[in-house]
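Design review, sub-item: ligand-bound model
Attendees: FS, YL, KQ
YL presented the inputs for the adenosine-5'-diphosphate complex:
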Amino acid sequence: MNETPPIRPGMIVGILGGGQLGRMLALAAAEMGLSCHVYCPDPKSPAFAVAAARTVAPYEDEAALAAFAGAVDVVTFEFENVPAETLAFLAGRAPVFPGARSLTIAQDRLFEKRLMEAEGIPTAPFAEVAKQADIYSAIARAGRPAILKTRRLGYDGKGQAVIRAGDDPVAAWRAIGEVPAILEAYVAFEREVSVVLARGRDGGIRAFDITENVHENGILATSTVPAWITPALADEALAIAGTIAVALDHVGVLAVEMFVLPEGAPRRLLVNEIAPRVHNSGHWTSDACLCSQFEQHIRAVAGWPLADPARHSDATMTNLIGDAVDAWPALAAEPGARLHLYGKAETRPGRKMGHVNRIAPRSDG
Ligand SMILES: Nc1ncnc2c1ncn2[C@@H]1O[C@H](COP(=O)(O)OP(=O)(O)O)[C@@H](O)[C@H]1O
Ligand SMILES: [Mg+2]
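KQ shared the predicted structure:
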């Protein structure tokens, strides 16, 4: 893979997926003198508005995929639910970063958990639930309360059901649609953090500062830097995320979500899940670092040197979910705030419409 020549200004980056992450990747690529070709089945995708070229076709359309591969100089993806076969098909025709291993593992919660086990990285106790009858033995192993999560396709808390004392486990199994799942012990965490790092084609790793995340109803609400975490724990979190990046032979941005347990717990960091892509908890980098996670991802997949991820400011990123986006006029007028809107035509409850980064002079370091 290291033999793939770097992408030069003027060349074309192909992006699978057309959501807000693809949109922000395309904007960053444009600032680097690159242009983007976005491939997405949904004609209303927000990334199309800022891309030089588009393909609207299903991920299974081999003729469209072959034409796309022929039109771009490198392929990446903005979401992990691109079918593995799609990536394999493209990989025979164009350089693809991140590779199949990152995609395959990150799109399946069971594979993720098994990778952590193999690498000796702690997670919540869990068990596979392949069929309804497995749920009882899984509860015996993970205890209650527990969370049943679909192995695949879950996001923003979707595809999850909590099982508390007295709850009927079969109701949870029905609620998630009776699909292959894992059951996880419910973690009484003190806080949630994430590491957003990039790994270059040469294997070099640069991490942004660890971020503290607050979720509401399973959806990320805010991300704040600096995180309230000791330097020793921050170092441990960075080491864990680096181990995962190497184990995946990942190229590009990788996000690792973690739970921080209260002092006194035998292991204070548990990995929750990983994302083989730019991540909502890294959106603050756009305004608090010289190089955003989006530019850093494009640099990694393009074979450019990774940028210095140092943070020059404190930041809190607040997601604008559903009609929270209607506050845009006040946010646009707010000192110290930078508003990012995704250009989605339709506002729906629970839909990410934009975010605002509130920036202040750096309080630490
Ligand atoms: N085992 C758990 N214990 C406690 N809270 C959890 C657990 N799993 C998930 N959550 C909460 O739900 C949020 C979303 O779950 P996550 O597994 O990250 O799925 P998603 O793909 O929807 O982000 C987490 O950030 C956390 O706040
Ligand atoms: Mg998550």
